[in-house]
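User: Hey, my collaborator sent me this sequence without any context and asked if I could get a structure. I don't really work with proteins. Can you help?
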Amino acid sequence: MAITLTQLRSFLAVVHTGSVTAAADKLVVTQPSVSAAVSALSAEVGTALTEREGRSVRPTPAGRAFAAYAADVVGLLEQGARAAREAADATAREVRIAAVTTAGEHIVPPLLEAFSERHPDIAVSLDVGNRERLFERVRTHRSDIAIGGRPPGEGIEGERFLANPVAIIAAPSDPLAGRASIPIAELKGRPWLLREEGSGTRTMTEEFLSRHGLDPPILTLGSNGAIKQGARAGLGLALQSSLAAELELELGLLVTLDVAATLPERHWYLLRARRGPLRPPVEKFLAFARSPDGHEAIEHARRPAGRTRA
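Assistant: No problem. I've predicted the 3D structure and written it out in structure-token form, which is a compact way to encode the shape of the chain:
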């Protein structure tokens, strides 16, 4: 089978953009070259990988099945090229981190700062997005390591890294504020504030509401900050990482509701693709993230000025 890297990249560009023209623009090549590469790839695989749908081009069922393998191969080859450059030139070393929004706001910055102080010769980059974006970057090897929630399987492995407790937050003026062991039935009919589709926090909240038979009015907000502001304004309740609301809770701008129900148990995970060796800079980052020094860097950043650990 004489499949080339150009064929794989052309096919993946068509899959991602839905158009030969857009794929050619993305790859900075001509449209005929993209069409020829995809046709040649289909011939090598032995079945059509794309088909027209109006003015767009979409993968066939065979193409959808093949795309994950193509992305894995391209990603691994790019990782190999990066490893070769790093072996030849130590100044080229880099670790590419991805993180879900909450981790990207509260965990990763102090971790990267402390890591960079110890390894100034290793460049670090960060991509922050929702869970779906995070998993896609890991699967396709565009990020070396990710920090997020429980891995979904499907080519991704993870190890527990830190506890991530959650809480139901509300405005201090909420009628349930200050009460102990609130029956879950008293939340019926109350509006809830949820993150956007694809967010792990949204999925967690939807599962919690469904498990307790709650079907409340939903307000969708696109960030943790917007949810906290909405909760402060009394627009609704939210199930959120305690870490994300830590400052507002300490300042009394938000309160947690003591609901008589078991809240989801969550952890932060260090995530990586199942296939492919770890490059030395990535191994160094993982070792630091797991170490007491790495955990101390995160905890230190969370302590208000003047407060020391007991």
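In plain terms: Residues 305-310 have pLDDT under 50 and may be disordered. You can pass these tokens on to your collaborator as they are.
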